[in-house]
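User: Sequence in, structure out. Go.
Assistant: Echoing your sequence, followed by the structure tokens.
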Amino acid sequence: MQYLLGLDIGSSSVKASLVDAVSGQIVAQDFMPKQEMPIKAVKAGWAEQEPQMWYDNMKEALANCMKASGAKADDVKAIGISYQMHGLVLVDKNKEVLRPAIIWCDSRAVPYGQKAFEALGSDYCLSHLLNSPGNFTAAKLAWVKENEPEVFEKVDKLMLPGDYIAMKLTGDVTTTVSGLSEGMFWDFAGNCVSKELLAYYGFAESVIPTIVPTFSVQGRVNAEAAAELGLAEGTPVSYRGGDQPNNALSLNVLKPGEIASTAGTSGVVYGVIGDVNYDPLSRVNTFAHVNHSADNPRLGVLCCINGTGILNSWIRRNVMSDGIGYAEMNDIAAEAPIGAAGLSILPFGNGAERILQNKEVGASIHGLNFNIHNRSHVVRAAQEGIVFSFVYGMEIMQQMGMSLDTIKAGRANMFLSPLFRDTLAGTTGATIQLYETDGAVGAAKGAGVGAGIYASTDEAFATLRQLDIIEPNARDAEAYKEAYARWKALL
């Protein structure tokens, strides 16, 4: 057998997928833990996780896949990694983790990024980094340097979450250009690590791991990991990508003008462009896509909303009766009319929001009338509020010249909700195409490309299966427009 292993390291769970390299079909898939992984928040706006927890859950999910499929160690021909973006993992010279990872939704570093933006200048930051340093990985390391100097002086290498998992598998500390760009370390004008940013923050260039191509044999499973995970020693780790570039890859979104979206804990609209462009206010961000090169630029414009699925989850835990799942919630929400009878919810309760220029405005409910509204209105207003935050960000992308006629997504998370899909199509006027794929499957196929099992991405994704098409309903367009205008006015 010829299987490809995809690992998707999220902040809620870790998924493993075994994919048949020939048919492209999922042979086995599992995620761990079955309840969401804890996020530690010592202070408001902080968010940390233990990297070892990611690895332990990966190990368990992989073991379940191997058992369910009956796969032998030698059947796995290549491994790909998708991971939560913008996190910071620090290790010493013995490759021991020095502190919990500061993850993507942690907003403590906002002032450090803003100071760098002002000191380096907007012209430099936008033309070289394509963004403000913002709340990204570099700014998070600056926070550690100032607030935990005893940790900082022990740092040998910084890593993104996917780099950490690759290190656990191979023993090698490496990273990619795409990863460095999401951390604000990559200088697109110079096609190198930004020496100006490192100098401003006082980081030695030696903290940057060895850079490897996104699609390549980046390392091989070492003896220790092989014994622990039931894999064959020498199996290539041949792809890694941040969760949003990887989600786009999983949908075969690789060419300029193509759009991918996902709506898990956070929500993202991700469009590919073929030239250097950026939002002057850094409300949406531009990173190197997985197929980017200096000779053939492929950049991903990422609109991220932190408070999406996490709001839906909060509603289920705190508003719904015990035992009600998401499918039943969707049915309850559909009982309320478009616009939820004047009830609006701002979903921004999961840290600083980039589309709001890194402001932390919190979530809030508006227009609540005790004589009109019930739980159906609340659930509908939550889903509509999530969609409207997408639309708000997409308007910024349109200002950059992007066309948003078609949105591709996997049928998962919030895209399982008919109400969510219809509201997104109805408010934007875009056609939504849903596919049978996810981040772990995309990472598996990416590994096949990196290991040379597939000759191209076109070959890798020739088996991608479309499940559904949602067209906007012109009859409801005015009602969606009115509800969105009311919501937007609240901002």
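User: And one key feature?
Assistant: The chain has a mean pLDDT of 96.
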